[in-house]
Amino acid sequence: MAKSVSTFTCTACGATHKKWAGRCDACGAWNTITEEAPLSQGPGRSLGAAKGRAVPLSGLATEEPPPPRSHSGLAELDRVLGGGLVPGSAVLVGGDPGIGKSTLLLQGAAAFARAGLSAVYISGEEASAQVRMRAGRLGLTDSPVRLGAETNLRNILTTLDREKPDLAIIDSVQTLWADHVEAAPGSVAQVRAAAHELVTFAKRSGVAIVIVGHVTKDGQIAGPRVVEHMVDTVLYFEGERGHQFRILRSVKNRFGPADEIGVFEMTGAGLAEVANPSALFLSERGQPVPGSAVFAGIEGTRPVLTEVQALVAPSTLASPRRTVVGLDSGRVSTIIAVLEARCGIPFAGLDVFLNVAGGMRVNEPAADLAIAGALLSAREDSALPPEAVLFGEISLSGALRPVAQAENRLKEAQKLGFSQAILPEGQKVEGLGGMGVTRIADLTGFVGEVFGAG
Ligand code: TYD
Ligand code: MG
Q1: Topology adopted by domain 75-274
Q2: What is the dihedral of CA 51, 56, 60, 62, to 10 degrees?
Q3: Alpha-carbon torsion angle 360, 361, 366, 370, nearest 10
Q4: Per the annotation, does 169 bind a ligand?
Q5: Residues near ion ligand 2 (Cβ under 5 Å)
Q6: In the chain, where the domains are located
Q7: pLDDT tens track of the chain, all 454 residues?
Q8: Which CATH number does the domain 280-451 belong to among 3.30.230.10, 3.40.47.10, 3.30.9.30, 3.10.290.10?
C-alpha cells in the first residue's frame, strides 16, 4: 500500500500543493502554506450507498416559529447580531489584539446575564482574577456572569455540557488546545479543530457560543478563513488605535443582514454605545475648509454621514505619495485616473492624502463623488458648500451613476442640519422635503458646477 503523505494547504485560498512553498501558486499569497496530516483511509476508497443511514427529508414550508432571539439591551450589539442572539448559534468576533474584544464581550455577557440569560465567560488569556478586576472597573460585578479560566477544549466542553448555559464566550480561539490534535495552540490545525468542536457543540446543545479570534498581521484570523465559514455569524471589531471610536461590523450573518455596524466609544469605564454615529463622525468639523466633503452613506440598514478629508500638496518624490486611510485605495486611484483622463485635471507631481474622519471605514462605491469632491476641493484650495452632502458612483467614463437608498441618505443629512445635496442626475428621489438638490451628469459637470470651471 502506498504510504500516505501529508498535503500542504494554502490557508488563504484553500489550494493544495504537493510540497511546501513560500508562495502559493494559486493565489499568490506569501507564507500561507501549511502542512496537514494525511487523512486515514480504509481499504475502500469510495463510500458505498448501503452503509449509511437515510436522513429524513422535509419540505420548505415550516410550522416552526422563527428562532426566539434574546436581547442584551445593548442596542448596538443586538442590531449587529441581526436583532438579537439566536440560541445555538456560533458567532466569531475578530479584531486586532488590544482593540477591545474582551471588553466588548465581557460587557455583552454581563448585559445578556442581566437580561435573564445564563452566561459563561471562559478566558484562555487571563486568569479569572484579572477578568474580575476588569469587571470591577467596568461596573459589572452585580451581573450574574460566571467566569472560568481554561485552555483545554475537552475541559471547556465538559463544563459547558454540565452547565448548559444560554451563552458561552470563549476568549480566544488561538489559546485553545484540543488534545486530540497534535499541533501547537494557535496553529491552523488547532484553531480549525477547536472551532469545529465548539460549533458542533453549539448546534447540538442549543448553547449560543461566541468565539473570539485575534486577527494576524495580514488581516486574517489565525487559522485564517477556516473559522469564518464554520460559524453562523462573523463580526469584526475595528477602529484606529489612538482613536476612541470602535466599530463592530457584521461581515456574514445567517440570521440577519450583513454589513450592519454598531458604533462604540472606548472610555475609561469601558465601551459606551454611540446611538447617533453621524453626529459623532462630524463632530470635529469646524469652519469650512478645502479638502473636506460630507458623504451621506449607508451602513447595513442605517444611514451614516462621514467626512472625507483630502490633502493635496506638491511632491518631492519621483512617484508621489497616495496615502489612503479608511477608503479603498484602488477606488481612490481609479477616481484620480478618471479626473485626469476625463476632466484634464492632473495629479502628477502631487502627494495625495485621503482619510475618513473618526477612524471610520467606508467601502461603498456611493462614496466616489465625495472622494472626488474632497480631492478637487483640496487641489483647487476651495471649500465645498458646507451645508451640502454628496453621494454617487463614478464610472470610468466619468459619468455619475445613481445609488441605492437615496431617501434614507437625505433624511439623515437633513436631520443633521444639511440643506443641500449633490447627487447623480439619474437619481430618483421621492419626497425631498425642503432639501436643495444639485444634479450632476458627470465629473466635468461637477467641476463646472461646484468649482466654477471645467
Ligand atoms: P481588550 O478588551 O483587552 O482588547 P482585546 O481583547 O481585543 O485584545 O482591550 C484592551 C484595551 O482597551 C486596552 O488597551 C485598554 C483599553 N480599555 C479602556 O480604554 N477602557 C476600559 O475600560 C478597558 C477595560 C480597556
Ligand atoms: Mg482580549
Answers
A1: Rossmann fold (3.40.50)
A2: -150
A3: 60
A4: no
A5: 102
A6: 1-38, 75-274, 280-451
A7: 455 577 888 777 777 888 888 888 888 888 888 887 765 555 556 666 667 888 989 888 877 777 789 999 999 999 999 999 999 999 999 988 899 999 999 999 999 999 999 999 999 999 999 999 999 999 999 999 999 999 999 999 999 999 999 999 999 899 999 999 888 888 888 899 999 999 999 999 999 999 999 887 665 555 546 789 999 999 999 887 778 889 999 999 999 888 899 999 999 999 999 988 898 888 778 788 999 999 999 998 889 999 999 999 999 999 999 999 999 999 999 999 999 999 999 999 999 999 998 888 899 999 999 999 999 999 999 999 999 999 999 999 999 999 999 999 999 999 999 999 999 999 988 877 788 999 999 999 999 988 875 4
A8: 3.30.230.10
Half-sphere exposure of 162 (CA within 13 A, CB side): 5
18 annotated ligand binder:
no
Q: Which ligand 1 atom is nearest residue 105's CA? A: 2
DSSP 150: -
| Angle between helical axes of 128-137 and 101-114 (0-180°, round to 10) | 80
Q: How many whole angstroms separate alpha carbon 376 and alpha carbon 357?
A: 18
Q: Which three cell numbers stand for residue 241?
A: 488605535
pTM of the model: 0.83
Residues 144 and 109: their CA atoms lie apart, in Å, by 9
- Going by CA atoms, what residue is nearest to atom 1 of ligand 1? 100
